[in-house]
Amino acid sequence: MYAFDIERPTTIADAVAALKSDEAQPLSGGQTLIPTLKSRLAAPSKLVSLSSISEMVGLSDEGGVLRIGGATKHDTVAKEAGGSHPGLAGLAGKIGDPAVRHRGTIGGSIANNDPAACYPAAALAHGATIVTDRREIAADDFFTGMFDTALEEGEIVTAVKFPRPEASNYQKFEQPASRFAMVGVFVAKFADGVRVAVTGASEDGVFRWTEGEEALSANFSPDALDGLSVSAEGMITDLHGSADYRAHLVKVMTKRAVAAAR
């Protein structure tokens, strides 16, 4: 890695101020950034660590909405979200391995928006609200493409707010070496309908399967998806699987998620 300075602010205001300097970059869990630095694919002059900002850590209930601080670790979500959001807790408990879950953060994952990351699917399926130091952004407006979001320069994800679904579940077909999702599907059932979000499959990143949502909103059963198919257009093809294979997996994983939803 190249040499760099590091700051550890203890408040969001101090972090925002530190990020105003040239070439400063936020550091959350570091699960993507540190390997990038080691590969010399990035060379910021300063890293601003968010791990010491207490107001960005932890879970709280706000009128039936689960608020998770942006610097909250995956392991914490897995252990503490199960009472109100079992689908979300299950997702967090399957991210990477124990080392990743004890370092990676929900805010870092959502801000990075890796096309195979799990949390973007959870946020989109819940219709979550992403809270930053400047504003609140609906999940439907936040994820704009592969590794791309609505975040502006220096903007920090301080929390994510998840409304409580009636039932939910996440199913992931893992790439066994990385444990990223070749295809991951989060299904969330609400009183006004069902949301289905897919990660790992599309060249454009996380997306909603609207045809599946319509069928499941009318009949929340795996059988409701019989007869539907997912187009392979725009799906990822790589050494792990073809576009057609990933398209097929979207339906398979959605059926499994519906069957396991609680």
UniProtKB/TrEMBL annotation:
Taxonomy, superkingdom: Bacteria
Gene3D superfamilies linked: 3.30.465.10, CO dehydrogenase flavoprotein, C-terminal domain (3.30.390.50), Uridine Diphospho-n-acetylenolpyruvylglucosamine Reductase, domain 2 (3.30.43.10)
Domain FAD-binding PCMH-type: from-to ranges: 1-167
UniProt GO molecular function: FAD binding; oxidoreductase activity
Record keywords: FAD, Flavoprotein, Oxidoreductase
UniProt name for this protein: Carbon monoxide dehydrogenase
Organism annotation: Pseudooceanicola atlanticus
Lineage: Bacteria, Pseudomonadati, Pseudomonadota, Alphaproteobacteria, Rhodobacterales
